[in-house]
Amino acid sequence: MNGLPYYKAYPRDFLEGTIGMPFDSKCAYRVVLDLIYMQGGQLPDDPRYIAGNLGCSIRKWKSIRSDLIERGKIIVSGEFLTNFRAGKELETLAKLQDKQRENASKSRKNKGLQEPRHSHTESEPESESESKKDSPSSPPRGDDCLVAVSRYNAMAGRAG
């Protein structure tokens, strides 16, 4: 896997996890994490390369490297430096990418949807609201209201 254009950085976790670390170790740790992610989880343990990226001497990098290893921030794995969290994040990302790749290779047909009618002239099925218009429990239409009002007025006139 080649490097990522970005990764999830958890600022609160980073700040809380580096409380008490000297400034140069804390800053170097952030850059080393970036390098680890850029290298797909395994940064070659090359002092010249890392010191060059940090902008410090090889001697200074070796001192910082020892401090980070001692604090458990980076792990030496053979000829590589890695970080536990970076490994987990990259593994999760790889699973997500595999799942997306699998989904992309599947058929893109919508399942469970009815096929559209072939002719737009087919009549629509009667909706529930239309079928209720003819039922006695439905409210009266405009003409029915006029009839009802005139009947009421006639009865009221007879009653006095």
Description of the molecule:
The protein has helices at about 10-15, 25-40, 45-55, 60-70, 85-105, 130-135, 140-160, and strands at about 45, 75, 80. The protein has about 160 residues and is mainly alpha-helical. It has a domain at about 10-105: Winged helix-like DNA-binding domain superfamily/Winged helix DNA-binding domain (Arc Repressor Mutant, subunit A). A 3-stranded antiparallel beta sheet has the order 1-3-2. β2 and β3 form a beta hairpin. α2 crosses α4 (about 60-70) and α3 (about 45-55) crosses α4 (about 60-70). The longest helix has 22 residues, at about 85-105. The radius of gyration is 37 Å and the shape is elongated.
User: Which percent range describes the beta-strand content?
Assistant: 5-15%
Shape: elongated
Portion of residues within helices: 55-70%
Total of DSSP H or I helical runs spanning 4+ residues: 7
CATH architecture title of the domain at 11-103: Orthogonal Bundle
Which CATH class of the domain at 11-103 is shown? Mainly Alpha
Residue ranges: pLDDT <50 for 5 or more in a row? none
Averaged pLDDT, please?
84
Intertermini distance: 95 Å
Quick one: how many beta strands?
3
At CATH level 3, the topology of the domain at 11-103 is: Arc Repressor Mutant, subunit A
Biggest sheet architecture: 3 strands, antiparallel
Secondary-structure-derived class: mainly alpha
Rg from Cα: 37 Å
